Amino acid sequence: MLATPHLPQRLRSTAVLGALALALSGVLPLTALAPVASAAAGSAGSAANAGGAGGAISAAGTRAPAGYLVTMRADSAAQHAARTARAAGAPIVFDAGSTESVAHRAGLTRSHRAAAAAVGVSVQRDLTVALNAFSARLTPEQARTLAARSDVLSVHKITVRRPVVVGTPDRLGLTGTSGVYATRFGAAGGPSAAGRGIVVGDLDTGVWPENASFAGAPLPVATRSTTVGAPYRLAGTTSTTVMRKADGTTFRGDCSGLLPGRTSADAWSVATCSTTLISARSFPPAVGWVAPTSTDPKGREWASPRDSSGHGSHTASTAVGRSTPMTVTLADGSTRSYPASAGVAPGASLAVYKVCWNYAADTDHDGVNDSGCPDDSIVAAIDQAVADGVDVLNYSISGASDTLDDPVQLAFKGAAAAGVFVAAASGNYGEYGEPANNPSPWVTTVANATWTGTIDVAPSSSRGPSPASDDNLLKPDLAGPGTDVIAAVPPTTWSTTAPSAFESMSGTSMSTPHVSGAAALLLSRFPRWTPMMVKSALMTTADPTTFATKDVFASGAGYLRPGPAFNPGLVLDAPASSYNGYLQGLGVATGAPALRAVDFNGPSIAVGHLAAPVTTRRTFLPLVTGTWKVTASLPGFTVTVPTSVTASSIGQAVPVSVRIARSTAQLGTWSQGWLTLSGPTTVRLPLVARAELAVPRELSVRGTTGSQAFTVSSPFATTQTATVLGPVAAVTQSASGAPGTTVPGTAFTTGDLELARFTLTAATPAGTDLDLELQRRTAQGTWETYASSATSSANEQLDVDWLPAGTYRLTAVVYAAPGTASFTLSRWLLPGARTGSLSVAPNPVTIAAGGSTTVTARWSGLTAGRVYLGLIRYPSASRPTVVTFRP
Known about the structure:
Oligomer: single chain
Number of helices: 12
Keywords: Hydrolase, Protease, Serine protease
Structural class: alpha+beta
Number of strands: 52
CATH class of the domain at 698-886: Mainly Beta
CATH architecture of the domain at 698-886: Sandwich
Helix content: 10-25%
Family: Belongs to the peptidase S8 family.
Radius of gyration: 27 Å
CATH topology of the domain at 698-886: Jelly Rolls
Domain Inhibitor I9: 68-157
């Protein structure tokens, strides 16, 4: 069942899509959220308010402080350890409890206290391991003050994400006499050893531990054990669990099930954990969460790691579940039984981090309690998981799609620096145009492959290119089975003694744990591999020929094949220091030397805006010696690579230079191909490029009459005729509202628009926080949120590149104000009624191959004191030039 409140569009700048509901097999909906305020990027980002409601209204009638995450600029403990190890030429083995880490974390905590004290607030939650951040209750003014500090990277309102909604080990080549279990783990015990010594952390809705998928012996009590993969409860403690891992380090978890500040846990005890489920922690929202009662007809929840929705149990058992027969209850009440099947890495250990919660509230009045995964809970869980010592994190939850300084993506950056592999869902909005979620290069983003006679990517699976990297990084990374996956869920009776229940679910949530499990298998055999080496092995050995539709923007490098990943021969690695360089190159001020996105040493190459030949490089790390023939194919482009490369010793850096130049490619059209190294092994990297005119994104000009020159470049000889729209004047409406109110503007009807800009401007910005929503009227006559901009600012701007015909209205949410807030709602619609004139010359423009030409925009007839909008579009440019006039 697909339920979508609107058809989302790709938005520019500060815009963020309104929440989408995508219910598949009863799974909770997913929404992609973007940042709220970024001092680093020099402009405000955007996000929906947590729960859409904001903070509580105080007795004085003004909005009380709301929850924020403040991310500091200094390295987290994991990033600091990675930087120190690299400088010393030593392997990265992060230990959160080491003397150096403890001292570093203490210093970060002091910096949190100092920053909070500077604005007169207290710290609610310190994050120091994966992410250097703290949460606090802030007013909009306090948030803006912190965002302006030189030691602060970004400030985000706490937002709520959603879990993303039979592929068995058989479909991945794991079973049978020639499968991975037999060939790679047979001598150690087969499936029961597959993943031994590896801990997979599942960030989700919790777990139903009594399900047979999580069967295990009671944890023995011991003071120490050197046996790899043999967990125990530490003697002398109440609930501490310990396990020696495959890399020789130690995992240390907890099985009390207690929420912070509580002395008892709902339907949970230390004995709930086992030799399979070795740790379970809960991370409820720091503010505002109240557990529904067990009798609440709108939805229940446990104040413990126990799973109420089934999503977490399903993903966890898909990754590491033990083999068990499965019986599924069908819609008509009948049952269907399946033979015994296991998760991908049935010998691995499971650590649960419950970050998604049902609330004791139904604010949208849909008859079901609100639910979601607040990002303060998520980043706190990531921080703890890295400190505990997990090897793999499974994240079947929504994420940002058009930004990288999102706190969750930054926390994953810290986790990757500490050596933790992260698999994340690409999202379920492929049919509606939203780009793939979780766009960071340090995570492995997974698409949903279907099995309906032929293998293909599900239409709902979100696709690339990725606007977060300006289309210069391929996402998703690869695809795994994610349609009609049968795995563990809670029983419908909620009884802990009821028979184990299983359910079929579909979505990228289901494909992601297949990759998490595959990573656990690899790390069990190669525990010193870095997350990027694991990602490289999985991507470069994936099967790109499986799919009926060959589209790497849907499937990434191809279909997951764990078997060949055990012997890739060559792998790519990227030092943690390059993560900050990557961010710096995309405008996030980390202070590191800027690195072009196309130069990030990952297992794919994407060039989104090729106006002249581009040269990049990939540096391989050989795991075997030999010579590899290098070939590249990219229709419409000439790709120059070395004839061959040779590795005379294991570990020797093997660079491969790749020069991409347009030959016959049509301007503005993506071409897809492969870079292949063939020798002792075969390694494939997806290669995509788009040749186009290079034009400026924005021009900001002044004067009632004037001119402005700009440059147009082209990879081949062409004559281009520009389409010019505007200038158009704003249509404005003045309104006011008390704190906590929503004020709708006047409805307007329009045809298809190439560009629409909407702004909300407060008359008195001090102490005011207003949010802007664009709503669309449905066929039933109701209003639904189409897009929104919700920063910590009093003023908002929302740009929509393409707005389909319909009836819309702007709505202001008075999130905070010292009293009644007065504001102006404005809209510019292109095409629209022109005021004055705008032209470009020469038009058409002729450009030589690989050359550039200066074009001059001229305008006249504008009125001083007003703001106008125009647009210049060339047929072979993927994006127009937006012109803002401020006479």
